[in-house]
């Protein structure tokens, strides 16, 4: 039986940051489930940079069904966790069920991949203190306030925590995450 990977997300997550790891991990032979506040059709967004804008723009993205509600997740059934970015982490960090899930992964030192605004979730459970991370560059002060050492790099690996800045960094992010996964939770 293949190892299971959990992706936690919600509406307004960045489409590519959910679907790229979902498909890449399935391609490797992992069973991947998407959990959200409720079982429903999620509405993702596309963030891009356009000339004349000081920050990214947001457009409607793909829709995708959540396999599980956070309240249905048994973290012990999963070998690793993926935390996509987008706007979803801004409100998801307030969800007590999700915070329990996140804490379980960090307490058991299971592999965690986070990208973009995803580290806002790990900061909400004090999971970044003393760690090296990267994130969307505008979150540098947030990462420092959470006790992390921020590095503006394509990917930063700190033990079983693999972080990346934004969707153009996907290949490096998944390459390093798969290195950690193959060591800690190989496909059988």
Radius of gyration from the alpha-carbon trace, in angstroms: 15 Å
Count the strands? 11
Task: Look at the structure and give the mean pLDDT.
Answer: 97
What is the assembly state of the chains in this entry?
single chain
Widest β-sheet, arrangement of strands: 5-2-1-6-7-11-10
SSE order, one letter for each helix or strand: EHEEEEEHHEHEHEEEH
Largest sheet: 7 strands, mixed
The poorly predicted ranges are none
- End-to-end separation: 6 Å
How many helices?
Answer: 6
Strand fraction: 25-35%
Give an overview of the whole structure:
One of its GO terms (molecular function) is peptidase activity. The protein has 188 residues and is an alpha/beta fold. Helices cover 30% and strands 27% of the residues. It has 6 helices and 11 strands. It has helices at 15-27, 88-92, 96-107, 119-124, 140-145, 170-184; strands at residues 4-8, 31-36, 41-48, 57-65, 68-69, 80-83, 112-115, 132-133, 149-150, 155-158, 161-164. The chain has a 7-stranded mixed sheet, sandwiched between helices. It has a two-stranded antiparallel ribbon with strand order 3-4. Strand 8 (132-133), helix 5 (140-145) and strand 9 form a beta-alpha-beta unit. The protein starts with a strand and ends with a helix. The mean pLDDT is 97.
């Amino acid at each position: 039986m293949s190892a299971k990977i959990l992706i936690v997300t919600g509406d307004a997550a960045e489409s590519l940051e959910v679907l790229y790891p979902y498909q890449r991990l399935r391609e490797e032979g992992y069973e991947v489930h998407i959990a959200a506040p409720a079982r429903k059709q999620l509405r993702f967004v596309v963030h891009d940079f356009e000339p004349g804008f000081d920050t990214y723009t947001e457009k409607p993205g793909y829709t995708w069904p959540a396999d599980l509600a956070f309240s249905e997740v048994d973290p012990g059934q999963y070998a690793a966790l993926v935390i996509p970015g987008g706007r979803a982490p801004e409100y998801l960090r307030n969800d007590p069920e999700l915070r329990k899930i996140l804490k379980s992964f960090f307490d058991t030192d299971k592999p965690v991949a986070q990208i973009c605004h995803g580290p806002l979730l790990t900061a909400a459970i004090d999971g970044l203190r003393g760690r090296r991370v990267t994130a969307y560059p505008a979150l540098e002060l947030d990462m420092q306030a959470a006790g992390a050492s921020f590095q503006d790099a394509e990917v930063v690996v700190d033990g079983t925590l693999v972080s990346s800045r934004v969707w153009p960094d996907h290949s490096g992010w998944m390459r390093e995450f798969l290195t950690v996964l193959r060591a800690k939770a190989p496909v059988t």
